[in-house]
Amino acid sequence: MKDRPRRLRTTAAMRALVAQTHVLPQQLIYPAFVREGDGDPTEITAMPGQFQHTLDSIRALACELVEAGVGGIDLFGVPDQVNKDAAGSQAWAPAGILNRAIEAVRAEVGDELVICADTCLDEFTSHGHCGVLNNQGIVDNDATLDLYARMALAQAQAGAHMVSPSGMMDGQVEHIRTVLDTHGFTDVSIMAYSAKYASAFFGPFREAVASTLCGDRKTYQQDPANRKEGVREALLDAAQGADIVMVKPASHYLDVLADVAQVVDIPVAAYQVSGEYAMIEAAARNGWINREAAIDESLVSIARAGADVILSYWALEYARRS
Ligand code: PBG
């Protein structure tokens, strides 16, 4: 027999030599939550090992990420319930928790990490939706765009290198790009959550940000049944000026990720979301899965499908052990 593919699998050194996909710490982004108030960071029950940080602990975390060689951090704000309102105005208030967190991290690590911010209102609205509601209680696309622009501007002013619109409003990338440019932030980049599906795998995230959402996001996030639509969304965002397009969630959407990676000529990100994290952690806690091997396999699979950048709650741990 001439063709014996097993020859290249004979030893660990041989397998390493011919491995076709590598996940490097520098291509990982760590999503992190920052809440208002002092005290110790609060562990998130549904995401063991992940925390709602304080302004103090997020600074320390940022230093650890730099030391481990992680590429970036994506910051999410968790305001006190009393600071939420129908429009989500703490999202663009300079003293809002997310903007203060951006400022704190930038002051701590400067340009050593790519500092990204989630540009979406759901953490800040009293109703938990990603935009403002019209008279019928439906998220009003065009009225929301101006609020995203204000939020992105506040994030740039606070020191974000990259804003990350994740609310799935039509036209959000173009609107944000215009406002950033008008105010001189031509170098602040946009990582667009382009193909974002209305997913049950965001479940644990709702606890992480103390979400008040009732109902669902199906009128703005995509239907999991739609593959081509993911490509359509990514192409629209690229045309509107996105610097990076994202597919989210990652593991259950590798087909969409591969499609998007084929058609765009800008970097593609994939977000390994809270539910993907929680499932492996829970199975590992029960002794049902080899935790590290499952984490590594999940990350390499996302990279193999075409992700240049991966958002993962395991970014720090993975970087430390690679
Ligand atoms: C919206 C946002 C969500 C996530 C990231 N940005 C929640 C949602 O769309 O319902 C989910 C991330 C995760 O599950 O890890 N601001």
Automatic annotation (TrEMBL):
The family this protein is said to belong to: Belongs to the ALAD family.
Oligomer and partners: Homooctamer.
Binding residue positions for Mg(2+): 233
Catalytic activity of the protein: 2 5-aminolevulinate = porphobilinogen + 2 H2O + H(+)
Function: Catalyzes an early step in the biosynthesis of tetrapyrroles. Binds two molecules of 5-aminolevulinate per subunit, each at a distinct site, and catalyzes their condensation to form porphobilinogen.
GO cellular component, one term: cytosol
Database matches in Pfam families: ALAD
Family matches, as SMART domains: ALAD
InterPro entries assigned: ALAD (IPR001731), ALAD_AS (IPR030656), Aldolase_TIM (IPR013785)
Pathway: Porphyrin-containing compound metabolism; protoporphyrin-IX biosynthesis; coproporphyrinogen-III from 5-aminolevulinate: step 1/4
Residues the entry annotates as binding 5-aminolevulinate 2: 274, 313
Active-site residue numbers: 196 (schiff-base intermediate with substrate), 248 (schiff-base intermediate with substrate)
Superkingdom in the source lineage: Bacteria
Name this protein carries in UniProt: Delta-aminolevulinic acid dehydratase
PROSITE patterns from the UniProt entry: D_ALA_DEHYDRATASE (PS00169)
Any one of the GO BP annotations: protoporphyrinogen IX biosynthetic process
Molecular functions per Gene Ontology: porphobilinogen synthase activity; zinc ion binding
Tagged with keyword Glycosyltransferase: no
EC nos: 4.2.1.24
Swiss-Prot/TrEMBL keywords: Heme biosynthesis, Lyase, Magnesium, Metal-binding, Porphyrin biosynthesis
CDD domains: ALAD_PBGS
Species whose genome carries this gene: Arcanobacterium bovis
Lineage, uppermost ranks: Bacteria, Bacillati, Actinomycetota, Actinomycetes, Actinomycetales
Binding site for 5-aminolevulinate 1: 206, 217
